[in-house]
Design goal:
Pfam families: T6SS_Tle1-like_cat. This is VgrG protein. The protein is of the alpha/beta class and 704 residues long. It folds into four domains: 191 residues, no CATH class; 316 residues, Rossmann fold (3-Layer(aba) Sandwich), CATH 3.40.50; 43 residues, no CATH class; 87 residues, no CATH class. The chain is 30% helix and 20% strand. The protein has 19 helices and 21 strands. The strands form five sheets. Strands 10-9-11-12-13-15-20 form a seven-stranded parallel beta sheet, sandwiched between helices. A four-stranded mixed beta sheet has the order 4-1-8-6, covered by helices on one side. It has a four-stranded antiparallel beta sheet with strand order 3-2-5-7.
Amino acid sequence: MASKDPLPVPHKHKEKAKTFEKGGRTAESRKTDFAENNATQANKASSNSASGITAGSVDTDNWVEIIIRDEFNEPFANVKGNLIDSSDTKHPIALNKNPIFVSGTSPGTVRLELEPTSWLKEAQKSEHKPNLGEDPVRWFARSYTGHQSSSPDYLTVTAGDLTAPTEDITLPPRHVAKQADNLHMETGRSYVLRVKGFNYKTLRLGVFFDGTGNNNENHQQGLAELQQWLKETCDDPAEAADEFENCRLGTTPVEGSYANDMTNIGKLSKMYGPPITSDRHIFPAYIDGIGTVSGNNDSLMGSAVSLGDTSVKARVVQACQLDIKEYYREQISSNDMTDIDGYSKIEFDVFGFSRGAAAARHFVNTIDQNNNHGLIESLTNINGLHLKAGFNWSDRKDSRVTFVGIFDTVESAWQDTMLGLSPDCAERVVHLTAADEYRKNFPLTRITNDVNGSQIASNFTEVVLPGAHSDVGGGYYSRHTLGYGINPDPALTEYLRLRYFVSIENNLTQHFTKSQAYKKAIQYAQHKQKLGWADRIVTFTDPNRVLNDGEIGLRVRTFRRNHRQSKKSVHVDVLMYRVVEGELSRIPLHMMVKAGQAEGVPFHEWKTGNKILTTKTNRTNIPIDLSKLEITWLKTACIKGGVKEQYKELPTDVYRTLRRYYCHHSSHENGALDKLVNQANYSFWDSGEIANRELLPNTPGQTS
């Protein structure tokens, strides 16, 4: 076997291919160029023939010349194989910028069999993609003079036409053998083969893990019931008389995941897209919150201790084995995918809130640099989903976590989970946390390697924002969500028993204000008032006394268990009644969108006027404008490599006003079970006035 000198066209074909695609030159000028190149090529071919450069025997009548090009007239490289003649003799050949020229073959039919793996890896490269412009290969074939002054046959072929099938390699339908021109080659002829380009895209998946007690489907059902209750009960004077207490105290007819507004995770999942771009296929996969079941009752075990089918780990398994696959099938059924052959790379944008943030972190550690997880089997078993030849799940060039966006990570699980994020686990990690969350069962797992926040990776960002857990991650209702034309206050009402204090007093005639219980209660209430949670404190003994918006009430009860006892008990409930707006969580939502967009996450453009995005409240006479804070904080999450304690930069009076009207008080003790779940985290030796959140460090490579 011998090769002719390199064709003159390949030396200039890159420039020409661009010209064809842009369509900036005339057909006549292209013909002139090809004619000139052809004359040069003919002279070189004659020189080769005269030099006796052949392959096999000296029988020069039995020869074949094959030029293989992509749709831009580019050659393929570094692929070996065989040309097989009519006697099944194999003649080794290689693809490069030179023509394949083989002589001394048996006369008759010949075929090519390229080494499958190297051929498909080369053919599926992005530089060999389909050409949507004019066909430069056809022009080249028309102007090329082959061996012995032959005119080449021009054929369009598929990658499958040039290799033998194997069990391990599955080709997209457009590229299997016999899906183009009939490839029949014989000795004594020249051929120019144009190989159909693979339209491989990057598959970009947004995976959204919602928090405990949050579920998009259940939210929609609960919202409809809540709106009906507000309209038919609380807005109807006749009904309101019977339901007065429930309406005024915010005791709504929905509970659990049906009682919550859509979280920031739910909103982000709906902002992720569009489905198809020039180089990517994009779709979101929303994963139901921990402890929830769509259309059914919440799971107590899942919600309380993250066990069972709705736990943190179970949600990750379900996402890998079922949910992502089902979302993909839904996408391909509703979008035209006929021109997409498969995927050369998979990118993951992973989001989560609360225990969903824990699930997001566990998911990242499950799929990163790992070729043994449930997503591999579920995706590769989808009929019609093709990955490029040699796709390697453990290679970050093929499978990569691009962005991790999490809100206030809380694990609180009776399971071993992998929450530690290594600096290289993703290209970018952003964590938004709550400064006013201090429930005992809601410890924060930071993305800093120490609890003080001084050790953080250069591509990580953690921002501490005012508000409670769901003021950052979302889930509290807004007037905008509840709709217009009704009074939404009952759904926004926060009526809580913050704490209760009990003391045994020896002096039966002593006024209750002298008791230890009352002293501790008033001290606690004054501390809350100082922080801005309420406007005033009232003390009363009448059990039917009704609080007004912005009041902390000290409800006092005194009694003796036995009238002959010389001691009395003093019991003081610290109550708080407020109507709290729900727009604060939209600022961290906007911050996450902005941080994601800065790294190429395909979020829709932010629309300030959208009722689920706006920070402007419909309530009058609120002395603070969230939109100003939104502008100030917006780009904070885009600053890499640091911890930003945004809440500390607020003036005291602004922070107090923010707490009064927008921050929810998540810790409370409305009953024995409620206290078990939502009590504040006080130190053992603390008097009960100031609560502090437990902080846990980021521990890469460890389970927790």
